[in-house]
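Ticket reopened. Same input as before:
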Amino acid sequence: MNIVAAAIGRPYIPGWTDLGPFVAEGWLIVTVVGLLLAPFFARRRNLACFLVALAGLTAALISLLWVGVPAPGRAPLRGILIADSFALLWKAMLIVFTVGVLFLWRSTTASEMREGDGPEFFTLLIGATLGMSLMASTTNLLMIVMAVELASLPSYVLAGFRKTHRLGAEASLKYVLFGAGCSALMIYALTFLYGMYGTLDLGAIARQVQGGAHAHPALLTIAFFGLIAGVGFKIAAVPFHFWCPDVFEGASVEVTAFLSVASKGAGLVLLLRVLMTFADAMEYRAAQPLVALAYAVGILGAITATVGNTAAFAQNNIKRLLAYSSIAHAGYMMCAVSLLFNLNGHQTDAASGVNAPAQVLLFYLTVYLFMNLGAFAVAALVYRATGSEDISAFNGLVKRNPVLAHAMMACMISLIGLPPFAGFVAKLNLMLVLMNNGGGWWILVAVIAVNSIASAFYYFRVLRAIYLEPAGADQPAFAGHPLGVALAAGSGLALVLMLVLASPVSALTRHYARMQGIGGAAATPATKPVVTVSAAP
Amino acid sequence: MNSIASILALSVDAQTVPAVLFYLFAGISAASALGVVLSRNIVRTAVCLLFTLVGVAGLYFLLESEFLAAVQLVVYVGGTLILIVFGVMLTSKSPFSRFEPKAGEVVVAIAACIILFAALVMAIRSADFRPQTLDTTQKYPVVALGQALLGDYLVPFELASVVLLVVMIGAAYLAKSRKRDDKRAVARGAATLSQKARQWS
Amino acid sequence: MDPLALQHYLAVGAILFVIGLIGFVTRRNLIVMFLCTELMFQGVTINLVAFGRYLNNDLGGQAFTIFVLVIAAAEASLALGLVVLLFRQKNTLDADAWRELKG
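Engineering reply: fixed in the latest deploy. New output:
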């Protein structure tokens, strides 16, 4: 009887009860198992796996929102995992986006994919999603490495999933080799943090760095360089971006969309949490390790944005163009992560625990998610109709399929950051917070402004093809898969809505921009906005 | 390590033996690591890596980590390296690689890496690492390692199983050949051919 | 004085890591490049085991080493799967033969 009770009622797993906030991750693991079993029970295996993945993600999203954020103050699972509102919002965004990727697959690649490849494809996709969601909720070095690898390894296969496609396999191998090198570099550098401070917990390490114990500047520099290299590889920051355009061109479009948002977002969220842990331990003062780190990330962000935008001019392939555009946007978001100390106050509001850079990042990611989903959906449908990924395939799209044309227009203008769409508020929010931080951050504001103006030229090339160029004789009107059209139209609509409802979205991200162990995370929700961004009339 | 000295009947003091063994193992691994990088013959490269891995396992023994040394030999040498050798066998028509980069690039890369190495060594020499005390009487109890893996590191441990599952599926997908499809396509082609033949007859 | 200190082991780790890095950057054969990343991982694990040993037998380093072995094995299987796939397409493994992707 005792054994049964022990097996059912209280299983002997240390920290079992702490797993409550991680039910969503549990659902993802269940989904992986379900995906492997589903083909045995269905004849149309690809469709069955699509439905299982969809159901699993829905269950994960519902349980994520149902369970919510646990009361702070406890370190669940011996401090290995962290459940807080910052991680929660990222996970919700990630799951919603992955559902979008599933629909994108359904509307484009599903008909090309060989029957029976579906189980593998969705297993890899859900596995990568699990890794990316765990990247947001840990400050343990070992767990960071495992989460990054769980996010990376399936991505390598996904990038080369079209085995018959020449570029796909080649880009995938480039990705895997470069990824192995970068992860070796990252783990090697992290061993020095472990050796100097005798713990794998970054919070404890940060407190010791603040106390000045055993700090060796050269080794600390190497450690942070490696950390930035490993995470920079995930977000394709210059000079770790070489894989990005090739992989984006070689992979099928829903994988490209997935990597452009989920992989980069997870890297940025991880980087923000790691750096804020250090910054918070040093109370956001302009002290030495922090200043160097902030400048390094800021300069890297500025270079990344500039290189991405410069290289995008020469591209004629829409997927390569969007790849460089996503590099540029990763650069903008890195600028937000560089806000490690504040000359005019405190990064974390003492009363509410709201972390201003986290709010900026979450807001930007929310908007970025819809911009890229929409742009890739349109690109995928145009490719399905014309068989070409060239920008000339968009010629006269406004006549051929007006809904897609207008959706693409919304995404492109939003990516530039111009007013009638939500990209404008995201970028404005970013620039205002950078400006308010004092110090040298106005330089980053200037860099972002110049980059945005420059980027308009290549985004407008696409728009010119859509609206001004006449359609060729071999470019007839097409309807497109209804699910894909709905996805593109929905993304465009979301971009409009998020501009009109900028204040609620801003308030939502501010409410969730609180991290456990950083600032006063235990405090009540923020009522007074840090930065007010009102809707343009 | 005293036991080794007594077996060898050497009249050396207790501290010399580990030092000699250390330099032996370190020399083996470093020399064969150079072999990995310099050799043009891929099979020889793989064999050099084998010696590096064995040398590193020896260093683990010196660090009183017998379990890890065994794992290194079984998993790395017995598993990963065999996998690599299979990869070499499956893919190399000639064991020599033909294209190699220009001398200029090599010089720049080596110079950069040597600067990095010098910086690393200087930093390591001058760094004040935490406790320098080494309790030579104690070894790692394997029991404690098992308890740590299923206690403190339970979550990464379970995650490792997910990683391995996903990677296994991915690798199987990549390496799986399309022969069955080809056969089916051939069969389909033959069927249409015979249909046409029937029409014509 | 103890003839062997932590620094000795770290130096071996650094040597293996940097040799691996040199090979990774300069060699052009895909399998050799991949073997060089294995060398880099060996440098990592020596560091971890040595740090753990000299941190009063802290188990973190040992546990981390086991996970690094898992990661290295996983990367090996994926990379070799891709290598076999590519070889079927092209019959060569020299990176310079793969000029179809621009940098």
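Residues 32 and 48 of chain B are 5 Å apart (CA to CA). Residues 66-91 of chain B form the longest helix (26 residues). Please confirm and we'll close it.
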